[in-house]
Design brief:
Strand order of the largest sheet: 3-10-5-8
Shape: globular
CATH topology of the largest domain: Jelly Rolls
Number of helices: 1
Order of helices and strands: EEEEEEEEEEEH
Number of strands: 11
CATH superfamily of the largest domain: Jelly Rolls
Largest sheet: 4 strands, antiparallel
Distance between the termini: 57 Å
Length: 152
């Protein structure tokens, strides 16, 4: 018997957090007579060496679709935030820094307690995956001039 499960593990070692996604795909069961690996069924059989899956109830994950030109308000997180552009082109800025444009597949790790915003490029929508833990504090809207890089 097989179970439908694919696991992708993203480890942010410096933050002491791990994120796990579970999706659809086939996973093999242990051979007859072999004990299952510790943890999630046969999860450990797909690794070499000792591993430990560390789920965290404190992790917040979201997928946000931004239409072209749309963005968040300025905000900050008490821990770093991992942003990944899944589709389209994203855009972000940390306070005092340059605007960063991200293509599909690119990621960015925002610094803890640094005011920032993120969204889509002016001429392209973006689907962004976001993960963070800790507190989130919202601030004022990003003006059109700030978004277009005319003012910081």
């Amino acid at each position: 018997m097989t179970h439908a499960r694919t696991v992708v593990l993203v480890s942010l070692v410096s933050l002491g957090v791990a994120v796990m996604f579970v999706g659809a795909a086939a996973q093999q069961q242990p051979a007859q007579g072999q004990p299952p690996a510790a943890g999630r069924g046969n999860f450990g059989a797909n690794f070499t060496g000792k591993i430990e899956v560390r789920d965290s109830a404190e992790m917040r994950m979201s997928r946000i679709y931004f239409e072209a030109g749309s963005r968040t308000n300025w905000h900050l997180h008490s821990t770093a935030q991992l942003l990944l552009v899944e589709q389209g082109r994203g855009r972000l800025q940390e306070q005092g820094g340059a605007i960063v444009d991200l293509a599909t597949g690119q990621s960015f790790l925002t610094k803890p307690n640094v005011l920032h915003w993120h969204g889509a490029a002016p001429d392209s929508p973006a689907l962004q995956f976001s993960v963070y833990s800790g507190a989130l504090e919202w601030k004022e809207p990003v003006t059109d001039d700030q978004y277009l890089g005319k003012t910081k």
